[in-house]
Description:
- The chain is mainly alpha-helical.
- The chain has a domain at 86-169.
- Helix content is 61%, strand content 8%.
- It is built from 5 helices and 2 strands.
- Helix 1 (28-55) crosses helix 2 (60-73) and helix 3 packs across helix 5.
Amino acid sequence: xxxxxxxxxxxxxxxxxxxxxxxxxxxxxxxxxxxxxxxxxxxxxxxxxxxxxxxxxxxxxxxxxxxxxxxxxxxxxxxxxxxxxxxxxxxxxxxxxxxxxxxxxxxxxxxxxxxxxxxxxxxxxxxxxxxxxxxxxxxxxxxxxxxxxxxxxxxxxxxxxxxxxxxxx
Length: 169
């Protein structure tokens, strides 16, 4: 059976299977989806640079060279490595709480969330931190607190909008 990873959806934690591992033989459809995602990621990563180069009057050949370089060096990164992904507000808050709790715990023992302990690589440490944040964020008490915080912020925002009247942008 494949491993699972907690995923918060609208304030409820679900265990979602993680069927892919290094060396996994991709089906034709899986390869197509990964290639499409890669292509979209590259487009998203260079879109502003392409626009800036166009505005500066760069040649199409020069712009193609920039995109080709990004394409040649592109690698998928995990969420813990700084990629952005869509996260529901409850999951975002639960993860913020989890990260803060983990920081406090590490600080109490003289350690930092951003500094790998001796004997561990940076990647190993990042993976451990990400796994712990996932685990803590999926805790029912953390989720309940996150839901309470998000709902309170929404309510406060509604009150403030009501107090200031309309917003015209």
